[in-house]
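Today's session is about reading a structure prediction critically. Students often jump straight to the picture, but the first step is always the sequence itself: look for stretches that repeat, for charged clusters, for runs of hydrophobic residues. Only then move on to the predicted structure, which in these notes is written as discrete structure tokens rather than atom positions. Here is the chain we will use throughout the hour.
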Amino acid sequence: FATPMDLTNIPSGVLTGDALIDLFKAAKQQGFAIPAVNCSSSSTCNAVMEAAAKAKSPIIIQVSQGGGQFLGGKGLDDLGVDKMTASVAGSVAMAYHVRSVAKFYGIPVVIHSDHCAKKLLPWFDGMTA
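Below is the predicted structure for this chain, in token form.
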């Protein structure tokens, strides 16, 4: 970055509510983008947060229905667990993982569900239940 981002008033860890709005305002006012990366495992989440910490940048970690299913375990299909149940379990597990470790990376982190087609609404609803 040509000019370092001023994130003085933005806490580290997973942001919600006013802190998230403050991050978006800072990005707009200072003219910087916040990268978003689709993750499908705790390892990819950690790698993304580590890279963001080294760059001193906030980051958006996205989970998709397929990424959630992968994290939940593709083998669950073979055990008779339906795809949406595995996707919800994996997506929620990813969110718990990121919430547990994000603050230690010293950067603002946003958790975001990737796009959700109408046919995937049961996945989205399951994550919010």
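Discussion point for the tutorial: The longest helix spans residues 83-101.
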